[in-house]
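Task card 7
Instruction: Convert sequence to structure tokens.
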Amino acid sequence: FLAANIVDKADNSNNRYQVAAKMNRLMTDEPWPFWGAPASQAQRWLTTTKPPEGAGADIPEFRATELAARKDKLPPKSVWQMHGAGAIGGLTLVGVPMLRRLLDTLGASAAVWPFGTGWRELTEADIEPLSAVVVEVWPLMFEAKRGVSADGVKEYKTQAQVRAAAEAFARMDDAGDLQKAFAPPAGADETLIAQVEGEEGWILGV
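Output:
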């Protein structure tokens, strides 16, 4: 659906707010679960502010992985939030079609964790046949200091965060711990495992 509806142009303009409004109309015919838009993009099915408490109670604000992160005092935003400080809803809507194109190109040699691999520890035997395993990461989990290149150019904040995440996972891999990060946390029951594998996904490292 997103691949068919999102228009993401080379100049970085896109129609994410219109698509969020369309999805709200199709799912609930109300301005939720997606919420948040600049005033110029607001309309009946997508408002500038969060819906009132109780609206969309049957659609949780956070996924299980985000609730787990919040227990660890980390502050993930909801994928339903489209606008405002730290909002990731728009990034998600634009990112999923790009991921779809990548997977279409890679074909059977790629898998998306945990949907295509199972939510379990991945061994070298699991990885060997694949050219890529695509995972969801959250760079803000890792402390990042902005570096400076040899010619004196300072990293963008986002660059530093992505680099710090890549370095953290590389250290885990070197220590032989990365494969364990693909497994569910202790105490995950069958209901949660089915929820994560079948619908919600999980953030690697949470």
